[in-house]
Specification:
single chain, alpha+beta, 4-stranded mixed sheet, 2 helices, 30% helix
C-alpha cells in the first residue's frame, strides 16, 4: 500500500505548489505514515484518523490547523 501512496503523492506533487495529503479513518493513517518519510508533504488534513498521537510535536503552537495538521520544514 505504501508504494501506491508514494506513487500518487509524487504525481500530485508534480502538479501543485504545495502538497497536502488527506484521508478519512485508515486513509488518515496511511497518509500520515507516508508523510514521515516524504519531505515534499507540506501538510495533512486528517478526518477521524484511527490513532491517538502521543507526541507533543503535533500540538505545538502553529502546527494545528482546524482539523488538519501542518508540518513545518
Amino acid at each position: 500500500m505504501g508504494k501506491i501512496i508514494a506513487h500518487h503523492a509524487k504525481l500530485l506533487a508534480a502538479e501543485v505548489d504545495e502538497l497536502w495529503l488527506g484521508g478519512f479513518s485508515t486513509g488518515g493513517n496511511l497518509v500520515t505514515s507516508h508523510a514521515f518519510s516524504d519531505d515534499n508533504v507540506d501538510g495533512l488534513l486528517l478526518f477521524s484518523p484511527g490513532f491517538y498521537p502521543d507526541t507533543r510535536y503535533l500540538f505545538r503552537p502553529g502546527h494545528c490547523l482546524f482539523m488538519g495538521l501542518a508540518r513545518h520544514r
